[in-house]
């Protein structure tokens, strides 16, 4: 057996859950899809209604809603009420981990009204938005102005609050960093009801740097000011097929956006957008995009592809055609490019509805896609949920760029998940050490993709059923995730906590740095009001006793043991 061959596994005996999952498409077509489409439409109408209001009116409503949040927090009795959580139902969250912390007694604060774009400031190039504004909503408002957020996460339903408090990335992150790196100010309601504006250079700068990845455990985010960039009407996208072993595919991916001469800030050498899809252990397609004007796109001989139409082939399958026909170039309307993975949920749609990529389904019912992730979660019971945790992988591995080849080989050997999604992002060298941070001394190593102020990382997106599961073999999903987490810790990688995590508290604080976070927890009164980020991310049910014990032990945090 070669080093890259997966180990032989015994066959797994099917149980009733296998058959339920196999025929779940019936429930999805007749229940989930119609309700999803209705909810999408109602949300769209709500967005239109919001856009009809003046910025002044939206600001007035925002101020009133903030006062309601402050009043609600002050009604809490710490000796009687549980820790503070939002009133959002657990199944509504787009993330894959179970929101089990809400099963314990808690004190709810309703943030459902915070879904407005408060201002698009063309002079300051800033969008000021509330936390429940999603990517589809903000791109629909900004793109017609030839403006965009610097980082627009691909799926329409992803919200500003989730991308800030959790994790957000896009094909432009090799220039601008993660979504939270593009935020210039946060409006936060602290535990005592005080409303503060945190920036990188005011008195709340420590809070500004601590908010990303904190999962909303330092305060309640009620608005954010986010960087805008000028854009053009189209994306000129080049599809380049590559054949070779996984290390060769990794190097081709690196070369697609990182000049070997180290000139990483040269716009002539570095594309505006980058992503790669690895379809198997020997084939991948590298995609690089540059903004293009309407005039350029419509020149004779250029191909325009409106990938947003419901009947179009799913984007990952369209990109895969480059493996047969060779390198090609096309122009995609910018907003449609931003949300290219929405309709098929990357390639997860193939598991949910196995025939949804067929031409007849796309023409007849493609306009109802995608099913809302929240509804998919709401229509699965405990047994189905546990089945997916064991037999299905949705994880992101954030690794230093020079480790991509090693990561691809590890995934192949341990999980055999394909396709894989590769997207680069910068980790900036900041004045303080945040929860995620570049490797010490990276600026002296001069590795490909790095600069003096940022280390290049890559998101290896692992989304699908592992090969052993598809072949009907035994597979321990929880154990595979534990091994993945250990590999990330050993290789200076990170695991976004929207996914199911098997990390113990000690390992959690080996992966992430907790000094600044714990400092802000104590300084701003979050201890005893909001649960800790580890506890919120922890897998499994949380009891009230566990909550209390975790908060009592905050002075002896596990991250101190790991140092």
What does this structure look like?
This protein is an alpha+beta fold and 563 residues long. The chain folds into three domains: 59-230, Uridine Diphospho-n-acetylenolpyruvylglucosamine Reductase, domain 3 (2-Layer Sandwich); 234-384, no CATH class; 392-500, no CATH class. The protein is built from 24 helices and 15 strands. The protein has helices at residues 16-22, 24-51, 55-74, 135-142, 160-165, 173-176, 205-210, 246-255, 294-297, 315-320, 322-325, 334-338, 349-352, 359-365, 373-378, 382-391, 404-414, 467-470, 477-490, 505-511, 515-523, 533-537, 544-552, 558-561, and strands at 83-86, 106-109, 117-121, 126-129, 147-149, 183-189, 195-198, 220-230, 234-243, 273-280, 283-292, 328-333, 393-400, 420-428, 454-464. A hairpin with a 4-residue loop joins strand 3 and strand 4. The longest helix has 28 residues, at 24-51. It is globular. The mean pLDDT is 90.
């Amino acid at each position: 057996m070669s080093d890259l061959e997966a180990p032989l596994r015994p066959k797994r005996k099917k149980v009733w859950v296998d058959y339920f999952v196999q025929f779940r498409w019936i429930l999805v077509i007749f229940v989930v899809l119609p309700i999803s489409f209705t909810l999408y439409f109602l949300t769209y109408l709500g967005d239109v209604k919001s856009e009809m209001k003046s910025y002044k009116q939206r600001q007035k409503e925002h101020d009133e809603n903030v006062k309601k949040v402050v009043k609600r927090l002050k009604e809490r009795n710490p000796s009687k009420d549980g820790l503070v959580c939002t009133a959002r139902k657990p199944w509504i969250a787009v993330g894959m981990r179970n929101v089990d912390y809400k099963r314990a007694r808690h004190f709810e604060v309703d943030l459902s009204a915070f879904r407005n774009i408060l201002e698009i400031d063309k002079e300051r190039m800033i969008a000021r938005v509330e936390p429940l504004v999603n990517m589809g909503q903000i791109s629909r408002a900004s793109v017609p102005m030839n403006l965009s957020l610097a980082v627009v996460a691909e799926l329409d339903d992803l919200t500003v609050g989730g991308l800030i408090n959790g994790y957000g990335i896009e094909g432009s992150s090799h220039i601008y960093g993660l979504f939270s790196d593009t935020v210039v100010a946060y409006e936060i309601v602290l535990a005592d009801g005080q409303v503060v504006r945190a920036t990188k250079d005011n008195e709340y700068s420590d809070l500004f740097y601590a908010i990303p990845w904190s999962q909303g455990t330092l305060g309640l985010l009620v608005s954010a000011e986010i960087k805008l960039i000028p854009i053009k009407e189209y994306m000129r996208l080049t599809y380049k097929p590559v054949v070779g072993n996984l290390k060769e595919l990794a190097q081709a991916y690196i070369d697609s956006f990182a000049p070997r001469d180290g000139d990483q800030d040269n716009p002539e050498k570095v594309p505006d957008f980058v992503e790669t899809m690895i379809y198997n252990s020997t084939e991948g397609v590298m995609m690089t995009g540059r903004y293009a004007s309407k005039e350029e796109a419509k020149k004779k001989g250029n191909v325009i592809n409106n990938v947003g139409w419901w009947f179009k082939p799913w984007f990952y399958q369209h990109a895969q055609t480059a493996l047969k026909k060779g390198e090609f170039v096309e122009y995609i309307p910018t907003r449609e490019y931003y949300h290219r993975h929405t309709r098929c949920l990357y390639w997860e749609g193939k598991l949910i509805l196995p025939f949804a990529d067929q031409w007849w389904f796309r023409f007849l019912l493609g306009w109802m896609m995608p099913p809302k992730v929240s509804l998919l979660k709401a229509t699965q019971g405990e047994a189905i949920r546990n089945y997916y945790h064991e037999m299905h992988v949705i994880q992101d591995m954030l690794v230093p760029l020079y480790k991509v080849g090693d990561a691809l080989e590890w995934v192949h050997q341990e999980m055999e998940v394909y396709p894989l999604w590769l997207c680069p992002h910068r980790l900036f060298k900041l004045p303080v050490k945040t929860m995620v941070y570049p490797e010490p001394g990276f600026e002296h190593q001069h590795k490909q993709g790095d600069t003096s102020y940022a280390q290049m990382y890559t998101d290896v997106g692992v989304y699908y059923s592992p090969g052993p599961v598809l072949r009907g073999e035994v597979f321990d999903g929880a154990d595979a995730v534990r091994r993945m987490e250990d590999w990330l810790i050993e290789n200076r990688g990170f695991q976004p906590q929207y996914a199911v995590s098997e990390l113990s508290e000690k390992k959690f604080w080996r992966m992430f740095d907790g000094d600044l976070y714990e400092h802000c927890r104590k300084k701003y009164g979050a201890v005893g009001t909001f649960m800790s980020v580890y506890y919120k991310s922890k897998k499994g049910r949380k009891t009230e006793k566990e909550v209390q014990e975790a908060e009592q032990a905050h002075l002896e945090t596990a991250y101190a043991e790991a140092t």
